[in-house]
Amino acid sequence: MNLKQHPVISSVNLLVENLQRTMKFYIDVLGFKVLEETDTEATLTADGKTPILTLEQPSDIQKRTRSTGLYHIAFLLPNRSDLADIIHYFIKTQYPLQGASDHHVSEALYLADPEGNGIEIYIDRPTDQWKWDGDQVHMTTVALDIESILREASTEGWKGMPEQTLVGHIHLQVNELQKTKQFYCDLLGFEPVLNYGSQALFISKHRYHHHIGMNTWGSAGAPAPAENSAGLKWFTILVPDENELQAVKDRLQAAGEYIAEEQGSFITKDPAGIRVRLSVK
Questions:
Q1: What is d(CA 267, CA 30) in angstroms, rounded to the nearest whole number?
Q2: CATH number where 190 lies
Q3: What is the average per-residue pLDDT within 252-275?
Q4: VOC domain: which residues (predicted)?
């Protein structure tokens, strides 16, 4: 599974309370670059040309309360040496991490931006090392072998997000799993690849370990966020071509789902009230 060949989640839009403070984190701490910037909005990139994260500060922004929305954005680095370099960097700068886990298919760090939005920074293990039981992928959550990773550090050290960095997946807080599963799988074309008890589910395309995670940890029965609530505004799913985009739109319309047209794309809402933008690659 090569996400460069099969990108699925392309970008994420966040509403923030303090644009300058949040920009400073993503640029100075994580090493993204500014692609476009206004007084109220900034689009960030890893390669200097492709949008990967947009930060927007509305004039009437509200603090996020208990609601559905973002659990974390997961930035996929191209090489294990990149993960080693950023670990060295976090040790040197003493930036606080929230966790570090080996998921068998991947190795990951966890932290948060200044507004509490969750972030995962990870690398994938080679796909021939993944284990599948039919259509279910084997994933674990065990301690990360930091020493093993650090042995692969580059001589250059951390120089900011590598150009090949992608949004590997996104993890959502939803209020109910079954209806959300039906929306993403039956209407948007994803496949379930791991049921994590009764409170979490992982889904993907092209037999990736997951492009979207969803859980009800702390959000079971929660309302959708307000229009101007800080947090996730929308995320973008890419489809291969115009025919597939139209097919998805037809399924959503037949199911009576919300659709807002955009030039060359459209926005819908999942059962948790989370906005999803669909666009052609």
A1: 29
A2: 3.10.180.10
A3: 96
A4: 8-124, 166-281
